[in-house]
Amino acid sequence: QKEVEQDPGPLSVPEGAIVSLNCTYSNSAFQYFMWYRQYSRKGPELLMYTYSSGNKEDGRFTAQVDKSSKYISLFIRDSQPSDSATYLCAMRGGSYIPTFGRGTSLIVHP
Amino acid sequence: EAGVTQFPSHSVIEKGQTVTLRCDPISGHDNLYWYRRVMGKEIKFLLHFVKESKQDESGMPNNRFLAERTGGTYSTLKVQPAELEDSGVYFCASSGHRDGGQFFGPGTRLTVL
Q: CA of B91 to nearest chain A CA: how many angstroms apart?
C-alpha cells in the first residue's frame, strides 16, 4: 500500500462548478499537508499549507484535513478554465521531506 | 524576484553517456532539494542541501548520481553513466527555512535512449 493515494483522474468539470480533490494516506505521523498546482511543463506551485486537522481557506480554495480518517481534500469554488492543471497533494511528519501523491489532472471546460 | 531556474529544460542522451543538470535556487535560500518524477509515478525526494552541505541524500538511487552545491549557491546533479531507468523529470526546489514551503523550478526532462 502506498503511503499517499491520489486518483490521477482526469476530472472534467464545467466552468463554475465546485471541484473536490482528495487524497488518503496511511502514515499517522503525517502532520503537515500541502496542495500543489502544476501546469503543463511547469514545476509544482504551492497552493495551500496546513497543519493538523481542520479547514483553511484562501480565496476560492479551501483545504480540509481529517486526520481521524487520514483523508485530505482541496475544494475549488467557481472553477475557471485557468484552474485546469494537475493538483498534487503532499504531506510530511517530523521529517521536512514531503511524500507526494501522483496528482489529479483537472480539466475545467468553458 | 526570480524563481528557481533549471537548465537544461530537456536533455536527450544515449545510455552510457553523462549528463549534468543545473539548478539555481531563489537568492538567499539556504535549502535546496532535488526530486525526480518517473513517468506515471509520484515525485520522489533525492537529496537536500543546506548551503553547501549535503543534509540528507537518502533518496539518491545509486552512486551513478552525484550532486554538488559549490559555494552554497547553484547546484548540479550529474548522472554518469546514464541508464534507461534514469529517464524522468528532475525537479529542484528551494526554501528559506527547512520547515517552510518549497518553491519548485520548472524541471529538467531527461530522456535516456
A: 7
Among the listed residues B43, B30, B29, the one whose alpha carbon sits nearest the alpha carbon of residue B91 = B43
In angstroms, the CA B60 to CA A30 distance is 23
Nearest Cβ partner of A41 from B91, B102, B106?
B106
In whole angstroms, what is the distance from residue A95 CA to residue B59 CA?
Answer: 13
pLDDT of residue B37: 96
pLDDT for residue A2: 80
- Shortest distance between the Cα of B103 and any Cα of chain A, in A, equals 7
Instruction: Give the model's pLDDT for residue B14.
Output: 97
| Nearest CB partner across the interface for A100, out of B40, B42, B106 | B42
Question: Listing from the earlier edge strand, what are the strands of the sheet with B75-79?
Answer: B5-7, B19-24, B75-79, B65-68
Looking only at the bridges linking them, the beta strands covering A104-109 and A11-14 are parallel
Q: What is the pLDDT of residues A48-60, one digit of tens each?
A: 999 888 899 999 9
